[in-house]
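Example A, followed by Example B.
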Amino acid sequence: MDMVSLLVSLVSGAVGGNIVGAAMKDKSLGGLGNTIAGLIGGGAGGWIMGAMGMLGKMAPAAAGAASGGMDIGSIIANVAGSGIGGAILTWIVSYFKGQGAK
């Protein structure tokens, strides 16, 4: 994973975490908590997609994808996977936080 992919993953994860926090006010970890959980989840989601080879397969067969570069298809796949990863981890952390409060 190169530096651009990592940055896209982290930003997308943070956005995904904050979207979940805004959508479910009772599950929100606060602005900083949502962002941190989203960053970690986005990084993990991007790494998992890259390790599975999904970023290259989801993108159109182009010279950029074959050489390991970033084309628009792989960027979109990275944004989607990382955003979902950030949202999922934020939801999981908020769920367990709520369970601990009971």
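Example B, a separate protein, is given below in the same form.
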Amino acid sequence: MPKSTGREVVSLAVLGDERVTWRPTTYATERWGCSLRFSYPIAKLADYRTRHAELEASPNPFATVVLAHLAAQDTRGDAPRRRQVKLALTRRLYERGYSRERILSLFRFIDWLLALPAEQETLFWQDVQEYEEERTMPYVTSVERIGLARGREEGREEGLREALRRIVRARYGVVPEALEIRIAAADREALDELIDRASVVQTVDDL
């Protein structure tokens, strides 16, 4: 058995959906006369839409995560704007003075979350290269760029499938067989649409 540290443990729910009024703070379950009620604080990322300047000024790496998350929602369907926002967030990593390891770690998250179509992706990398040359700080090398691209193409769809399954289980308790078959066969666009719908529909049958 691991030795106890004597520290208290707390839970925090981070809500990344776009429904302003959805703010669950309790979980309750009951079976065969046994019941459990669990209360927890929440952090609603949508609340930070009005605190953009505060996020921009914060040295906390999680501020970058929140900015990228909100940008992914705000630029859905607008690839040129998403490219500009993605570049701004990438430049911000350099300007924060983070270490190379932290820059690459946060960049991989931004790169995955703000995926771009091929043409915009090419323009984005050209912008990054020009910026790095200006600062003489080539943090993201060509080899790493190839690896990121391959990982994004090979892993993004499977990652989306797993994310969708988790959302469905959390909201409805189970992934029906018919939906599992649909998830397994869906392409990236269909998976994105299903994830958006899974966050708002009332029943799993609506998917």
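On Example B: The chain has eight helices and four strands.
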